[in-house]
Amino acid sequence: MTRTPHPVRDRVVPTKRPAASRSTAVYALRRCGYFAAVVFSVYTLSFFLLYALPSDPVALMLERRSAGAGGGTAAQVEALRAQYGLDQPLLVRYVETLLQLLGGNPGTSFQSGRPVPEILAAVAPNTLALAGGALAIAIPLSVALALVTSWRRDSVLHRVLVNVPALIAAVPAFWLGLLLLQLFSFTLGWVPSAGGTGLSGLVLPAVALALPVSASLTAVLVRSLDDVQQAAFVGLLRARGLPWSRVYLAHVARNALLPFVTLAGLTVGGVLVGTVITETVFARAGLGRLLASSVETQDAPVILAIAVLAAVLFAAVNLAVDLLYPVLDPRTRHRGRGARA
Amino acid sequence: MTAAIDPATDRGALLRLEGLKVAYPGQRGRDATVAVDGLSVTVPAGRAVAIVGESGSGKSTTLHALLGLTPRTADVSFERLEFQDGTTGGLRRIDDPRALRGRSVGLVPQDPVRSLDPLMRIGAQFAELHRHFLGLTGREESRARTVAALESVGVDRPGLRLGQYPHELSGGQRQRILIALALVGEPRLLLADEPTSNLDTTVQRRVLDLFDEVRAARGLSVLLVTHDIAVAGERADHLVVMRAGRVVESGPTRDILDAPKDPYTRQLLTSLPSRLPARPVFRAASPPRVVLASHGLTKSFGGGKGQERIDAVRDVSLTLHRGQTVAVVGESGAGKSTLLRLLTGLDRPDAGTVLLDGEETRPGRRARTAFARRVQLVYQNPARSLNPSFPVGRAIAEPLEAHRVGGAKSRAERVRDLLEQVELPAELAARRPSQLSGGQLQRVAIARALALDPDVIVLDEPVSALDQAVQFALLKLLGDLQERLQVAYLLVSHDLGVVRAVADEVIVMHRGRVEEQAATRSVFEAPTSPHTRALLDAVPALQLPTPLVHLAPLAPFSTSDGKKQP
Hints:
The complex is a heterodimer.
Chain A: H1 17-51, H2 57-65, H3 74-83, H4 90-102, H5 116-150, H6 156-161, H7 164-170, H8 173-187, H9 198-230, H10 232-239, H11 244-281, H12 287-297, H13 300-328
Helix pairs in contact in A: 1-13, 5-9, 5-11, 7-9, 8-9, 8-11, 9-11, 11-12, 11-13, 12-13
Chain B: E1 13-24, E2 33-44, E3 48-52, H1 59-66, E4 75-77, E5 80-84, E6 91-93, E7 105-108, H2 122-134, H3 139-152, H4 158-161, H5 171-182, E8 189-193, H6 201-218, E9 221-226, H7 229-235, E10 238-243, E11 246-252, H8 253-258, H9 263-270, E12 290-302, E13 309-321, E14 325-329, H10 336-343, E15 351-356, E16 359-360, H11 365-374, E17 375-378, H12 382-385, H13 392-402, H14 408-421, H15 438-450, E18 456-460, H16 468-485, E19 488-492, H17 496-502, E20 505-510, E21 513-519, H18 520-525, H19 530-537, H20 547-551
Parallel strand pairs in B: 3-9, 3-10, 7-8, 8-9, 14-19, 14-20, 17-18, 18-19
Antiparallel strand pairs in B: 1-2, 1-4, 1-5, 5-6, 10-11, 12-13, 12-15, 15-16, 20-21
InterPro entries (chain B): AAA+_ATPase (IPR003593), ABC_transp_ATP-bind (IPR050319), ABC_transporter-like_ATP-bd (IPR003439), ABC_transporter-like_CS (IPR017871), Oligopep_ABC_C (IPR013563), P-loop_NTPase (IPR027417)
Family (chain B): Belongs to the ABC transporter superfamily.
Keywords (chain B): ATP-binding, Nucleotide-binding, Transport
């Protein structure tokens, strides 16, 4: 057997440190651009949906304020129109409202006549606490449940637990809320049924909101854990004699968490939507309920402000996820296009 | 059925496995499948033993069973498993094969690309094993050991590698790192699971050389699992030939190669691609008309801002005559695939032209469609290039629909005709790709490429994903088709045996440039470029007694891809 002493060494892949930092900056800037685009689109869409609808907010306004005692005079209507800028053409109003929003002034409510920031500030902390609480329950819960489920891919436990997320997801949120209320408030009397302040009032709605959310998170993470276990490197780590707990937690779980992080970011949207139902069921003051009542009365400035606020929250969380991703996954750091082999 | 060991050279057995059985219990009324049935193998200390067989023969299952890596659903049993005791040198009985992992047996995997945790730096992958095997927690100590380990397996600039991630390294480097990782636990036996089948021939040779070096330097034994009897014959002292879960023949390599007893072994030896008759000499005197040609093709890719552009293909000219085959060879990264994309119009060159029938190809959708009718592609992996939800008949008819050729009835007729051309039964048209074997799928892919009666078929590694016997049958088919239909082939392959058997002219590429371009025979017999010589040297050579070639007992064994392997 003749042995050639390495005529050409294995190819050296050049490292691209200087270019990488620049492409990282470009990447971050582009993501920020996406953030702005999402928020702007939400504003535009909401604005035209709200103001281009064939109904007269002033008429509704007068009807409500005078509690059915008949509308105002034509002069009153005109004055109100001018006051809210409704006599302007749609496009002018679009630009003006946009400028106002950028200047931090979302206007005044049609219904109450109070400034929108004041209205939002009264209820937003409740909702943020609810959404935050729900996420704080949903994410650890789904991670724990998925890790337990996927521990042994071909075990009986896996076969049973893998169906749990689907079961939870099939339960309607409002029904679950009512069930929890029945059990913990009315039967056991542990927590207040409605309103409620502080932690004791928050627990039940947060759990009701968290469960359906954690169902989809768990399902995705289980799937992802199962897939990573199939990867060649996992079998190899086992073959080297590393204990399974080490392989599972340090390698499998770490790789499997990547798609989970993306989904967890998207879940923020689902949680914000869920607050509408949860706050109604638990009779909590909050953005969700405010939104529902504002839609009923077509209180456009309030709806618009809530929509934009939700968009900012959702886009900001996903911006954070996008910026976090290259830190978590080294493969997404270098974005330069290489030559095809 | 024990692998016979020549007692004269026997330095004592390191591993003895007897009566291994692996079965998968049947599900939903189906019978249990027996993956390995009564396998026995003995690995002598300091020797290399190879298990050879095609996919589905149970060779990889054997290897997994040896480390207790088979799925829990598998039913594994063995009569006896013994491993040499480190202190006394005698054989010690092993009840649970998992005890062998890492410290006694190291595994080098099949696919270097997917075998390293992508989120961990190379240094961390070593540090983890240092902690586990040696209880080493010091960072500096682990670092020093890793650098030494990388150096010993021939990784260049080991200090730099520590901070790199797996995706930043080439396949050859990764395979070296995997060998170094397997050696951390100081095992006595290395299991190598097709360690080179995903590497270039030249890299393959270097990695196999490394195995030999490591084995000699550390007094290790190697159990090599491969489908390539040429690699096995070159590297192992003993061969175990497996088929359908059973050992059909085993013994010293020389004995088996010189006088194979089992007809299946004989078939493996005769169906080596390098055993195909070489092509008749290129008729340069009165060449048939030129169908496809290129002049000065150049394409470069930007390596990101502030970086040099890399020439993937530089100034390549070639001519392809009707009914002839031109082969493009080279290591990965040589620009073969880019050249192919340029010639098929999938990419536009930066400079140079592609001529079809002497006319320059024009941009635009209509010209592109007309071009596609004349030049068709067959990819490496048929399982991925066919839509899994289409019955294969529909996949074959798809080009006809796309180019609006004929009606439903004439298309169905054409599909039947094409299946016949590629020697597949007509009833296969209704099956889905998942129900067919790899060889059958590649025949379907060829039939699809033939549907529009093209002048040129571009074959991108057409047989490299297939078993050896299937490769042989498929290459024969390609030859027959060319003779019958006078279609020209442009072949990209890293297997020089394949190239020698089917090509009239060979283009050797290196870093985007043409290193050598000549008639096949002169490239093989009198290579002028050092790169060509390196490629030729890297081919595993089997010295076989010549009369064997004429035996060719292909018929009784259904070399063609009879039924799908489990």
